[in-house]
Amino acid sequence: MALMKLRGHGSFHEYISRRLSARLSLVILTSCVTADLPVPSALIRLRYDLEPYIDPSDPKWQLMGLVAEYTQLQGSCQKDHLPRSPFASRIAHLDARLRRLALEMPSTWQPETTEVAQACDEALETHFDVYPDHFVSQTWNVLRVMRILLNVAPSSQGTLATESSAVGIPKINSTIVDSLATDICASVPHLLRRQAGKYRRFPGPEKCRIYTLIFPLYVAAIYASPSTLIKPWVVKQLSYMSEVVGIRQARDVANILTRNDGTSPWLIYASLGSYAFAA
Fold it and tell me: Pick from 151, 184, 154, 188: which is nearest to 169 by CA?
């Protein structure tokens, strides 16, 4: 943040500078959630300073603002121990805004659904989604992760899904959670399906794109209903990422899912690093 302040607002005229600033905001926001820390005032100021240079209709920019509200809600829950009713109301309001953002996504951000002729290990169901690029896919998955965490939030405990609450908590709406988790899974094959040769090399950029799937897949696996069979399917995909793509962390997460020890998603995020939540 000190370097951003030193560079001044003039640098915001440059695309790279704006993108790095937005990326920095997201990293700090998710780090605040992980550490149960309030959103720093300097970050709020950075977003305010960036606004004149950013298209307000940009889905990524809108989503980042909602992630900031999620972070602030998490901080309020931890600090103020909100009563059940106001807490549940704030969760529902934020979830509704995320849902509206998803419904209002521009046509250029919509995935194209591809049908699968027969059942295969690559796809959870008989179809998968192909996105315009991996940045769009990541943005959609960040939105889905946020909605899942809101919909499984145990309002009676006055906390969101952090290290004190993960597997086995009451679901506010399992139908919504299962649908979002299924959509996350449908975003996987269009990346992994292209890696058909077991002995081919995976360039760094490809590995990074696949790496960003690990965190959303973990969230989908631990909160989806057992009847969806999402969890065992996710373990298979993570094993593939480890054994074929060469991402060691995927095996670690697969082992955590197999142990079923209720590890918080934000602890997984912390172990994977900030790029796990890229958007």
Answer: 154
Angle between helices 174-186 and 230-240 (to 10 degrees): 30
More confident: 213 or 274:
213
pTM: 0.85
CA distances from 81 to 73, 88, 159 (A): 11, 12, 8
From CA 30, how far away is CA 37, in angstroms rounded? 10
- Give whole-number Cα distances, 153 to 33, 70, 149, 221, in Å: 14, 12, 6, 16
**44 vs 199, residue with greater confidence:** 44
- Asked whether residue 93 carries a pLDDT value surpassing 70, the answer given is yes
Helices (H), the chain: 2-7, 15-35, 41-50, 59-80, 84-103, 134-151, 174-186, 189-192, 204-211, 214-223, 230-240, 248-259, 265-272
DSSP 244: I
Say which residues have a Cβ less than 8 Å from residue 15's Cβ, sequence separation at least 6.
none
Residue type, 48: Y
